[in-house]
Amino acid sequence: MKSEKEGITQWDYEELQKHLHDEHLVFIDVREPDEYEEGHIPGVPLMPMGEVPERLTDMDSEKTHVFICRSGGRSQRVAQYAKENGFNRVINFDGGMLSFEGEKNTGEEKRIDQTSELYSK
């Protein structure tokens, strides 16, 4: 189900599942590396919340970004920050990984850096 909180679109687990393989969306896990390594959504890259401000200007603000964290709080703040900085299409995974019922990968899979596809505008 979709909803809205403080001007940010919220997706629950079912809504996330519907769109998880949509190549037009950019999914980003904003947790810390140790949390990500304990279990993350397969294929979703890591960009810790603290690195978002320095990387945001290199990201494509025309794409829709879906932010994910442990419970939905940090990802909500990242979505708000992105919106305040010109990203009009941002979504928060409300409930975060605590509500994620699907398959999870462990270990470091994919970390966003300047060579990542997010940076191709």
Automatic annotation (TrEMBL):
SMART domains from the entry?
Answer: RHOD
Q: Which InterPro entries match?
A: GlpE_sulfurtransferase, Rhodanese-like_dom, Rhodanese-like_dom_sf
Q: Which domain of life is it from?
A: Bacteria
Coiled coil start-end: none
Chain ranges of the Rhodanese domain: 21-109
Region (Disordered) residue spans? 101-121
The record's section on Pfam families has:
Rhodanese (PF00581)
Sorted alphabetically, which Gene3D superfamilies does this protein's record hold? Answer: Rhodanese-like domain
The name this protein carries in UniProt is Rhodanese-related sulfurtransferase
What organism is recorded for this protein?
Geomicrobium sediminis
